[in-house]
Design a protein that fits this description.
By secondary structure, the chain is of the alpha+beta class. Helices cover about 30% and strands about 35% of the residues. The protein has helices at about 15-25, 35-40, 95-110, 125-130; strands spanning about 1-5, 50-55, 60-70, 80-85, 115-120, 130-140, 140-150. The chain is globular, with a radius of gyration of 14 Å. The chain starts with a strand and ends with a strand. The mean pLDDT is about 90.
């Protein structure tokens, strides 16, 4: 498995947009598949936000994670780990952890000393990777954990 910039593998963008729309669409019901394509297209860069990474096995897409300036909650905080997704057959094999680690390194390389995330269901995974709970919040009646992590430079 290797983690690379989505910008270097644009052919995977449509499939990734499908996955993100199916997995995260409920968080903002006004978003469409086309909006996910737009968001991923905006992340086709390597040295600025937003940026996106993908996990590959040969040329098979396993999952993704992004580093973004803002997300659907807490606009005063930045940057954010976002859209961590691993295709179902590849879960439980360390793909998500590798993607998270790569996003953390990218944030540190860009000069950030802290990174944030929100999760409705994966708090335990992130805690195991050294993320700390900041607070619980709500988004559209959904309880979410807001977490952060100090970055080593």
């Amino acid at each position: 498995m290797r983690i690379e910039y989505l910008a270097d593998h644009v052919s995977h963008l449509p499939r990734l947009a499908e996955w993100h729309f199916a997995e995260f669409g409920y968080l903002n019901p006004s978003n469409s598949f086309e909006r996910y394509v737009e968001r991923l297209t905006a992340a086709l860069q390597k040295s600025d936000l937003p940026t996106a990474f993908i996990a590959l096995d040969d040329d098979s897409l396993l999952g993704s994670a992004s580093l973004v300036r803002q997300t659907i909650t807490h606009p005063q905080l930045s940057p954010w780990l976002s859209s961590v997704y691993v295709d179902l057959p590849h879960r439980g094999r360390g793909v998500a952890s590798a993607l998270v680690g790569r996003v953390e390194r990218a944030a540190a390389e860009m000069g950030f000393d802290r990174i944030h995330l929100f999760t409705p269901s994966s708090e335990k995974l992130y805690a195991g990777l050294g993320w700390e709970l900041m607070e619980y919040s709500h988004h559209h009646q959904l309880k979410i954990a807001i977490m952060s992590k100090a970055l080593a430079r």
